[in-house]
């Protein structure tokens, strides 16, 4: 039975990859090199409904290498921060995984800085790979940082491959300011071109590479989520890098947690979802004279094939070792969620965001609380709440910071976070907001009151609480107008853990802190099924959303919701599409 299962897994995996692994189709003298990548792992080592998990990730990569030994593995960054098993050990288990995957190099993700810069050399040494970042400079020396290399050249089957690292300039506002205060993040395209020219001039001791690939953490977007190379790839930094450099043959990237396969300016680009849910692949075919014939990007999304994969036994044993060591902490039951604390609404305050902000305000006796959307990573499902789950929900060690703020500055903070184009939409409590998405960013709030209905006084001072990431400019928030700023040094996650332990049975309700009375698309007055005498909540469609699921959340039928929004096809909605939810 075991042999049969292994055979089925192998056949299924090979079948899925058949169209990509073109070695057997190469002409005489041609060579095919593969670059396999993952990105935004965020410490996700356990197998989940979507995540491959440690043992199956190793198995998948080993199967690919067996098919084509001319394979190297790289990471596009954000490897460690995100789960209890990784956070409690500062990434040690993740580093063991990377060693078992035989990772050659990793980009420097913004979350690599969440614990400061003291871990890079240990991670690199213990994991057997190099961090690459050609655009991070030490302000004191004016030179590239010592804990990451600008480039790396490796030789595989006689072919030299140059890897150039690029970090996102967004790092300056995507991690604690104190951790990057002495670092300069230079323009990705200019930095990359400097080292492309260096490599093409043959100045590297390893010699001139035949292939040059950028290993980056710049992020990219694509409407079809990485299934069609003809669909446009977008993103400010990735477009800048592709359009303003000459000599790159491909780009591996991460940061935006979605799948991307395509080309910009003829440069192949790949990004493989997040948390080990997929693998990226650049298949590079060379002629006999080592000139490049083609570079093809592909995302290997295992989906249901994951179930047929047989876990690598060595990798499984290593994961089990760490899980056993930490399970007494991770599995501690704190309480019970009496419903799902969702975190999927990018305009309104999510159920989870409401609960967290209200807890922050209660813990500090504040009137108003602000929490950045990206600080909360996943929902709390109905059922048992464990310590490990709380780490997954809030993996960052942020602390409560209180202050006094004028109403005018509070309004600016809401305006910044309510429709933030560069990060997750912010959560807040203590306020109610009316919002018009058709107005200019920064001026979309049409009405703002306290939770008791009193209008927010622009000249009055209110007690506010936020976290130590936001107070230093994280996600572009500006609290410079605040006074009496006090860092309590109370970790928000610990405060929430104590709250769950105390209450045992925890509940939270859907909230309409943000509403709109002027719809983006006004339905006809005589539209059948329209719900009248309502206010409206804006809902932004997320990847994998379906109309019936959205409607169910708001106690509607999909037909009612479709008619209300005048949709022509109820089976066709798109990520980032705006829907109006009528609320009686």
Describe the overall structure.
With 584 residues, the protein is an alpha/beta fold. The model is unreliable at 1-15, 17-25 and 518-534 (pLDDT under 50). It has three domains: 2-323, 4-Layer Sandwich (Purple Acid Phosphatase, chain A, domain 2); 333-515, 5'-nucleotidase,  domain 2, CATH 3.90.780; 535-583, LysM domain (Membrane-bound Lytic Murein Transglycosylase D, Chain A), CATH 3.10.350. It is 27% helix and 25% strand. It is globular, with a radius of gyration of 25 Å. The longest helix is centred in the middle third of the chain and has 18 residues, at 313-330. The strands form seven sheets. It has a six-stranded mixed sheet with strand order 4-3-2-1-13-14.
List keywords for this structure.
alpha/beta; 16 helices; six-stranded mixed β-sheet; Purple Acid Phosphatase, chain A, domain 2; 584 residues; disordered N terminus; Membrane-bound Lytic Murein Transglycosylase D, Chain A; 25% strand; 5'-nucleotidase,  domain 2; 27% helix
Quickly describe the structure.
The protein is α/β, with parallel strands linked by helices and 584 residues long. Helix content is 27%, strand content 25%. It folds into three domains: 2-323, Purple Acid Phosphatase, chain A, domain 2 (4-Layer Sandwich), CATH 3.60.21.10; 333-515, Alpha-Beta Complex (5'-nucleotidase,  domain 2), CATH 3.90.780.10; 535-583, Membrane-bound Lytic Murein Transglycosylase D, Chain A (Roll).
